Amino acid sequence: MKATRIAVLAALVVMLAASLAYAGPTYDRVMKDKACRVGLMANSKPAGFIDEKGDWIGFDVDIATELCRRLGVQMQKVQVNNKTRVTMVQTGQIDMSLANMTHKRERDKSIDFSITYFFDGQKFLVRKGTASSWQDLVGKKIASMQGTTSELNVRALLKELGDPDADKNVISYQNEAECFQALKMGRVAAWSTDSTLLIGYAAEAPGEFELIGDFFSNEPYGVGVPEDDSAWRDAINFALQDMWMDGTYKKIYDKWYGPESKWAFPLTDEIELWP
Amino acid sequence: MIKFWLEKTWVQYLLLTTIVGCIVFYWAYGFQSPYEFQWNVLFEYNTTYDKHFGLELLHGLLTTITISLISAALALLLGIFFGLARLSGFKPLYWLATAYVEFFRNTPLLIQLFFWYYAVPQLLPAGVRDWLYFDIDMTWLGMNIAFEFWCATVGLAVYTGSYMAEVIRAGLQSIPKGLLEAAYSSGLNYLQVLMKIILPIAFRNIIPPLGSEFLNNLKNSSLALVVGVAELAWTSQDVEALTFKGFEAACAASVLYLVTCLFTSAVMNAINRRLQVSNGMARGNLMDRCLDCCLAPAEKGYRNVARTLRRAERKRKLKRRAQAEVGLVPIWQVYVEKSFVLLLVVLKILFILTLLFILFKVIVALWGYNWSGVWENVRVLTLFRFPAPASETIYWGLGGLVLTLLMSIVVLAVSFPIGLMVGLGRASENQLFRIPCTAYIELIRGNPLIMVIFWSYFFIGVVRGGNYLDAITSATIAMTIFNAAYIAEIVRAGIQNLPKGQFEAAYSTGLNYWQTMRKVVLPQSLKQMLPAIVGQSVAMIKDTSLAYIIGATELTLAAQIIINRRTDLLFEIYTVIALLYFLMCYSLSLWARRLEHRLSPEQVRLEM
To answer: Which of A3, A100, B97, B487 is most solvent-facing, going by the fewest CB within 10 Å?
Structure first.
């Protein structure tokens, strides 16, 4: 009886201690542990995905690996999705997130962002030959992902183009795979999100899908980092700029998005460089 | 000394109030967290998004209620049909009904919804598909009722229908054989036996479990979020995504679910009390009186109609008897009867032919599957190993089928003792244990599992101040908490089913509470509960598929990852995972049934 009581008390003390454990500033902790937990997508080609062999690869994965190498820490990959990528940074479960995340002011209220490391914009993906301009999609069903900025952008665009039912014509799915399936099955006429994602999926079935129209939003991707940790953010920013200056960035970019790659996507801008 | 004081009711209440007071005090003053609570997100108009999120949530609730009402009505029709078909002496119909019931009860609703949404339209001709996709759009009370809505509704109806069929079959079969024999031997014909003996008794057996199926259906409607229906759980996610105020949104959604479920179960309890013939259960609280008021006109109408029909029937009988005495049975009547028999035979043959045709089609389709493509992905489905050092610490990085099994085993092993303790607590007479246990059970049972998973995944970390749990762990925790509440209810029912004399006899021989429980009560009630607990385990294994939504790499997510890569394997992969789930659940169900049979062998199969 006494033993049980002691065990229960001990368990309580341990739980209390665990919950009170002090989560220190990220920079100090990462540098002390020499380990950095990086949030990456696992179902988004070509940013972060799992290939046939079961390896976790992609553009974001390579950038994260390079960042960690330059910071001299070991990378621990953590899977995030479009719902958890903000909260996990916010509550210190990961130290940075490279997860197709657009730098938005609303998001910046909860976490901080590095400089823009990738320039993307939103487009429509349609089955080949079914539509050629935005106007063709007015009044049609459009797929988008719940909880993304692209969902809001596409609603706004459709409303602007004169679709009174924009709210109900945009169907919000839980993840990209579901959106693509819905497009493939003909449930929706188009799927709208960041172009790189669309290119990634279109490459799955060459010749069947195409991107149409211009960008209708700018999507500057930033590395999500915990709020108010200037040292950590600086370290990442400097590493990103170093990567750009010595050409590593371009190499990685060409590997995934270069003209010869499966997901050809022209580099349209330069990342911010501080002298 | 402590025991003496603890037995006083006022001490129990005082202690409870103190504990609650301490928690409230801590929450209000001592609690620190990196998360900023902004409850006004629920009450204020958000100018950034041009929306009032509180109203959006209420609107979500409306959609939830609409979906569950329509699907429950459809499910009841399906349930009646297949429940009767399960009792049919016509074997092909019985086989069809059995296949329907077993298949849909033993595969997860999530997989079924995916199948209805993505795969089924591909089987239809293009014209029908376009009609489904584009022509059935409508807006009703601000709800967008389109293909998504109907897909979720029909999917739910088919799922719940299989449960209702079982409830109806069991209710009809629960009638003792002796009663039927007595009825037949007293000269009643089949229709009379059905109307006067079977249905009135079966009705009382059927309504209570039917009500709980209705409640389950309401909670299961939360899964409509995977096909993009803006119901309550979806809306709470939407608020989270737009404002990052997920804690507040989930609180509101949980409270709405809880209120809806508690209200529904209050109505159902009132109905159950009304149905009891009279076993001393007191009636007369507010709900009972409301129900009586609502039902009074219907009852009166029913009596009038029944009286008219009865009189007409009596008149017809008198006439027929007069004819028979003269010896005149019109020849057309004989022909009508003969042709009716012939028609029945033709219908049966047609039915068998249709069944054979469908079976043939299915076999052809299965034959044409790209099995080598499935074979390439079998390793991912069963042993999916996630290439992440951080997540390899959980269950050695296993995934797919193995992870599903591991999660199920852990959840079962942990939730059983918790459920046992909570169930005992709820059945205890000490308010100090009874009230918290009841609150826990009602809180969890009043919410869909998906909300519990959201809680443990997104928000426990928030409240604890940072340390988030990974998807697998938090799904396991959520399912344990959820499953324990259901097991607790089973335990409580088992204890309360024992005759009261047992407790008194045990106490009077000088056993204390724990000894009574361990030596007298639990052995008996556990034996009774065993089939129910195994049944709950089947439900739990199916529920592991919900971990998909927060991204735990169990069987469903592994399948989605494969489909994501190889969309041409859509049908193959869905079939394979449905079969895998089916095998797991069906073998357990069979075991549960064997147990039930062994523990109560006197039941017989009633044929109709």
So the answer is: A3
User: Which one of A168, A193, A218 terminates a domain?
Assistant: A218
Distance separating alpha carbons of residues B73 and A65, to the nearest angstrom: 55
Closest residue in chain B to residue A35, using alpha carbons only: B390
Cα dihedral across residues B491, B493, B499, B503: positive or negative: positive
Residues of A with CB below 8 A from B380's CB?
Answer: 54
Domain assignment present for A200: yes
Let me know whether A33 and A73 are in one domain. yes
* B317: containing domain: 285-326
CB–CB contact A79 B386 (8 Å): yes
Are B448 and B219 contacting, i.e. CB atoms less than 8 angstroms apart? yes
d(CA A237, nearest CA chain B) in Å? 25
Residue A171 three-state SS: strand
- The complex scores an ipTM of 0.72
The verdict on a CB contact (< 8 Å) between A172 and B551 is no
Same domain for B267 and B300, yes or no, is no
- Taking the CA of residue B416 and the nearest CA in chain A, the distance in Å comes to 19
Which of B60, B67, B268 lies closest to B156, judged by CA? Answer: B67
- Using the predicted structure, report yes or no on whether residue B56 has a pLDDT greater than 60: yes
Q: Per the CB < 8 Å rule, is A173 touching B228?
A: yes
**Mutating which of A51, A79, A150 best tests the B interface, going by the most B Cβ atoms within 10 A?**
A79
What confidence tens digit (pLDDT) does each residue in B427-482 have? 888 888 889 999 999 999 999 999 998 888 876 766 665 556 777 888 899 999 99
- Polymer length of chain A: 275
User: How many Å separate Cα B125 from the centre of its chain?
Assistant: 33
